[in-house]
Design a protein that fits this description.
The chain has five helices and four strands; from the N terminus they run βαβαββααα. By secondary structure, the chain is an alpha/beta fold.
Length: 153
C-alpha cells in the first residue's frame, strides 16, 4: 500500500491540534485496517465551533457542532481519482470530549480521524451489526497504535 495523500487545512487555531504527519499516520492506519491497498487521497479540515455547527446544520440538519463530519467523494462515472472524500473535525469539540471522557487529546484525535476515514470507506454504525463491526475495527486499529479501546466505559 502506498502512503495516502492527506491534505490538512487549519481553519482555526492550531493550539492543541495535531500536526499533518499525525493525521497522515492515523488515516494510513485506518486504510491498512480496512485492507485498502489502492492509492488514496483524503482532505481534512480542522474547524472552530461556529463552522462545525454551520456544517452540521447544513448537511445533517443538526444545530450543534459535532466532533467529525465525513463527506465521501461522489465522483462522476468514468472519473477514477484516488479521492475517497473529506473530513471536517471540530477542534473545540474534540478537546471538550477528551477532557470529559478522561482521554488523552491525541488519542481522541486519532480515534475520530480513524472513525471518519472508515466512514469515507463505506463503514457505518446505523444498524447494530454495522456498529459492532465498525467499532471492532476501530478498536483493533487503535490498539495497533498503542491506544486503548475508546468504547470502554
Amino acid at each position: 500500500m502506498s502512503s495516502p495523500d492527506v491534505a490538512v487545512g487549519y481553519a482555526t487555531s492550531r493550539r492543541g491540534v495535531p500536526a499533518p504527519v499525525s493525521f497522515r499516520r492515523w488515516v494510513e492506519a485506518a486504510l491498512k485496517g480496512a485492507r485498502r491497498r489502492k492509492a488514496t487521497e483524503v482532505a481534512i479540515r480542522i474547524v472552530d465551533a461556529d463552522e462545525g455547527r454551520a456544517l452540521n446544520l447544513q448537511y445533517r440538519g443538526r444545530d450543534y457542532a459535532t466532533n467529525v463530519l465525513s463527506f465521501p467523494a461522489d465522483l462522476p462515472p468514468g472519473l477514477n481519482l484516488p479521492l475517497i472524500g473529506d473530513l471536517v473535525i471540530c477542534a473545540p469539540v474534540v478537546a471538550r470530549e477528551a477532557a470529559e471522557q478522561g482521554k488523552k487529546p491525541a488519542d481522541h484525535w486519532a480515534h475520530l480521524t480513524i472513525h471518519g476515514t472508515l466512514h469515507l470507506l463505506g463503514y457505518d454504525h446505523i444498524e447494530e451489526a454495522e456498529a459492532e463491526a465498525m467499532e471492532g475495527l476501530e478498536t483493533r486499529v487503535l490498539a495497533g497504535l498503542g491506544i486503548a479501546d475508546p468504547y470502554l466505559a
